């Protein structure tokens, strides 16, 4: 009976110690990181070098650690990295995350780019699933540092390989002979230009003189144009003014003549309709009268004045001889 009581007492003591140890562990967990904030980062590049427990820095200052690395099932090209940072770290809008690689040690997550006065990155109240698919805020990424270099290394090596192959094709024996010929021709051309240096200098001097003469001629043409404008302004404009006055006077005279013709039109019509026929009749009467006078004059000439009042004298009768 006494041995059984001892076992119960020992079991109770062990249970109490385990409970105290569990409470102590929970207290330590709360003391060490209970208030840390969690964020998700979605990378399209390789996260080689990162692992759970890797360091998270903000502008080079240690600020947290990586908690989880996993594929993002809706889009397999993305890798989700869950980090936890201290509450005093300013994760504001404008903050970006990049992978800081190292050849000698593990990679780390580098945070930077916070803007003064910007609000913190949080899940919105409206449609939170769109901005925070797993319930925690998302920090946007940027490619930079050694991580960017390592991610682009395969493409860079491929381009270097292509460039090397093209250089090899360019510098084969045939192209080398062509390049040698081009260099030889270039040397001969350079030598010919050096030999003709004085002639080229003389040609340039003549060209400079011609350009100067052309400039002088242009200036003279400008002066002539200004003089022509002055002549036109001083001589032609008064003449044009006189011509305008003459045209105005002629127009006024034409208007006066039109008015005079209009006033004389009734008299002209009367002359053509009445006076001219009467003059024609008078001329006809005068013609008849002149004919009569001519006949009287002829009678006076032949018979004298008596021929006008008596009948003409009959001729003497003479009997015919048988």
UniProtKB/TrEMBL annotation:
Mce/MlaD domain sequence ranges: 45-112
State the Pfam families in the record.
Answer: MlaD (PF02470)
Q: Which residues form a coiled coil?
A: none
Does this UniProt record's set of keywords contain Oxidoreductase? no
Stored InterPro entries: Mce/MlaD
Transmembrane ranges? 7-29
Annotated protein name in UniProt: Mammalian cell entry protein
């Amino acid at each position: 009976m006494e041995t059984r009581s001892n076992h119960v007492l020992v079991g109770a003591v062990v249970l109490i110690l385990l409970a105290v140890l569990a409470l102590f562990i929970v207290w330590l967990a709360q003391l060490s990181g209970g208030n840390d904030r969690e964020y998700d980062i979605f990378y399209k590049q390789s996260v080689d070098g990162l692992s759970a427990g890797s360091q998270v820095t903000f502008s080079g200052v240690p600020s947290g650690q990586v908690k989880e690395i996993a594929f993002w099932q809706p889009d397999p090209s993305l890798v989700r990295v869950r980090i936890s940072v201290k509450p005093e770290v300013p994760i504001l809008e404008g903050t970006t995350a990049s992978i800081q690689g190292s050849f000698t040690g593990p990679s780390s997550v580098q945070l930077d780019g916070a803007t003064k006065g910007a609000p913190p990155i949080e899940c919105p109240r409206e449609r939170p699933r769109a901005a925070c698919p797993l319930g925690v805020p998302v920090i946007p990424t940027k490619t930079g540092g050694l991580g960017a270099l390592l991610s682009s290394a395969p493409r860079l090596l491929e381009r270097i390989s292509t460039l090397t192959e093209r250089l090899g094709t360019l510098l084969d024996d045939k192209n080398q002979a062509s390049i040698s010929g081009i260099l030889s021709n270039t040397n001969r051309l350079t030598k010919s230009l050096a030999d003709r240096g004085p002639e080229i200098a003389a040609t340039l001097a003549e060209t400079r003189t011609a350009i100067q003469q052309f400039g002088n001629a242009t200036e003279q043409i400008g002066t002539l144009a200004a003089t022509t404008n002055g002549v036109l302004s001083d001589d032609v404009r008064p003449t044009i003014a006189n011509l305008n006055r003459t045209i105005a006077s002629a127009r006024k005279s034409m208007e006066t003549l039109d008015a005079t013709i209009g006033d004389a039109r009734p008299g002209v019509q009367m002359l053509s309709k009445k006076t001219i026929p009467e003059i024609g009749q008078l001329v006809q009467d005068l013609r008849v009268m002149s004919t009569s006078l001519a006949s009287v004059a002829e009678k006076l000439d032949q018979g004298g004045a008596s021929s006008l009042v008596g009948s003409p004298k009959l001729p003497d009768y003479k009997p015919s001889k048988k």
